[in-house]
Amino acid sequence: MKIKTNIQNLKNYKIQLRVEQAVHEFMKKKGYLKLDLPVMSPALIPESYLEIFETEFNYFDRKEKLYLTPSPELFMKRLLTQGIGNIYYLGKSFRNSEPNSSFHSPEFTMLEFYKVGATYLELAEQILEMMRFVSDKTPRSRSFVNKKLNNSIFYQGKKISFDKWEKFTVAEAFEKFAGIKEKELFNNKLFIKKVKEKGYKTKGFSYQDIFSQIIAQEIEPKLGINGYPAMLYDYPKEMSSLAKLSKDEKTAKRVEFYINGIEIGGCCEELNDWREQETRNKKQETKRKEYKMIDHKVDKGFIEALKYGLPDCTGAGIGFDRLCMVFANATSIDKLKLINIV
Amino acid sequence: MKTSAGSLKKGDFLFYQGDIWQIQKADFYSPGKGSALMKTKIKNLISGKNIDYTLKTAETTETIDVESIELQYLYKDAENLHFMNERTYQQYTVPLGVVGKATDFMLEGSKYFVYIHNDKPLTVRPQMNAHLKVIETEDAVKGDTVSGAKKPAKVETGVIIQVPLFVKVGDTISINPETGEYTERVKS
């Protein structure tokens, strides 16, 4: 890897600063408490789908492994169980084995926030409100103001208005964009049969893998391209192990949202059953061993905290770099940075 | 050659569904839940057709080692570009649709690198820059000093592109053959 100085990105970087300021302002206005959190932790929540960065604290004989946090979740949920109320974190998170590409970087900025008592659909509305707020606070060209395009931006030649969401349930989107019917989507066997017919490889792939592949190839490119950001909601429960289930018990209360085919973030109603979380952690831990991933210490205190009681809440995670990229009308997140490690 | 999909990059040649394809775009994609994916756009090197192709990064793919040899570009007809190896006089053809827009900036009689696999030509290796002479353009009007103003100019391959006002007939200019955009004046 190399250090690259990109002073030509100064204009985009300044837009990022404006977005950042607007987000802080919005969060304050809405009563969220800003958190400052560590990025190094002696233990993590096991996740079999993401690799972590490992480092070591050294002091004479004392040596201790530390890990860069892939998300601030473990700290934030601890505080929620203590009754801290609505909180947000805007800062760095780290994911190993995610090479630099248009929308990924091993080191990235995460906007994560939790609203106590809110449903996932209510929080989705607040995310939209935040984007409206940000769009009013970020600079735009004179021609833009003349056209009185309030609450909107231009991204890659397309007008995007934050006045409303274009909404699809996952089942609707699969039917409309991929020709997969609801009864096929919620039945593992029928699902595999259908995608095989469509020409996808299925051997050795899990339901989750194939699901993500269809989302990536056939659905995402159609989301958020008709003048509004799009939200996709009510995911099959297999796709949302940390979200609460809906009444039908087939879907989980999770939302992801998109602008011009790019996933920007999402939210879900947080599972607060510590037993389920513990079972899940054990499964993920076993999988990590099986995949020969970095063997980190599991955060047992997290489960202890959940036993104390996580309030009903919805948590949102937004790829802040991607959000800024959209407001800066840039095509990749590296175009916002003055220094890139590539 | 076996390659994991996670290592695929733009320009690689891929064996897929019995055909050879070239990767036009490869982007890492992590859905958060579920395995990481590579989202690619690949071009069929027979029909020139582009398709989206998403793979798991851990999947094994069959990539192809190719050699590139310098050939003389003879001419193009309605379907193909014709090349000749100046040493052996062997002739090769590459479908027009496979090379795409870059053919607009290829000059007959000039030499280009062509990718060859099993003695079959696959496609033309893209040039970083095409250096071409301007054969027709209007003189700049005095006093027209709007910065960034452009005018049309015809280059020696017969294609018209937008150039800055100071470019004159006889200048050699550099063009990005992928986008067809003027980059700089090489020689006046």
TrEMBL record, chain A:
GO MF terms, alphabetically ordered: ATP binding; lysine-tRNA ligase activity; tRNA binding
PROSITE patterns: AA_TRNA_LIGASE_II (PS50862)
InterPro entries per UniProt: Aa-tRNA-synt_II, aa-tRNA-synth_II, aa-tRNA-synth_II/BPL/LPL, Lys-tRNA-synth_II_C
One Pfam short name: tRNA-synt_2
Residue stretches making up the Aminoacyl-transfer RNA synthetases class-II family profile domain: 13-340
GO cellular component: cytosol
Gene3D superfamilies for the chain: Bira Bifunctional Protein, Domain 2
Name under which the protein is recorded: Aminoacyl-transfer RNA synthetases class-II family profile domain-containing protein
Source species of the chain: Candidatus Roizmanbacteria bacterium RIFCSPLOWO2_01_FULL_35_13
PANTHER family noted in UniProt: ELONGATION FACTOR P--(R)-BETA-LYSINE LIGASE, LYSYL-TRNA SYNTHETASE
Biological processes, Gene Ontology terms: lysyl-tRNA aminoacylation
Alphabetical UniProt keywords: ATP-binding, Ligase, Nucleotide-binding
Keyword GTP-binding included in the entry's annotation: no
TrEMBL record, chain B:
Occurrences of domain Translation elongation factor P/YeiP central (ranges): 68-122
Start and end residues of each Elongation factor P C-terminal domain: 130-185
Major site of localization recorded for this protein: cytoplasm
Gene Ontology process terms (BP): peptide biosynthetic process
Annotated keywords: Cytoplasm, Elongation factor, Protein biosynthesis
Single GO molecular function: translation elongation factor activity
Pathway: Protein biosynthesis; polypeptide chain elongation
Pfam families attached to this UniProt entry: EFP, EFP_N, Elong-fact-P_C
Domain of life: Bacteria
Family that this chain belongs to: Belongs to the elongation factor P family.
Protein name: Elongation factor P
Organism name: Candidatus Roizmanbacteria bacterium RIFCSPLOWO2_01_FULL_35_13
Lineage start: Bacteria, Candidatus Roizmaniibacteriota
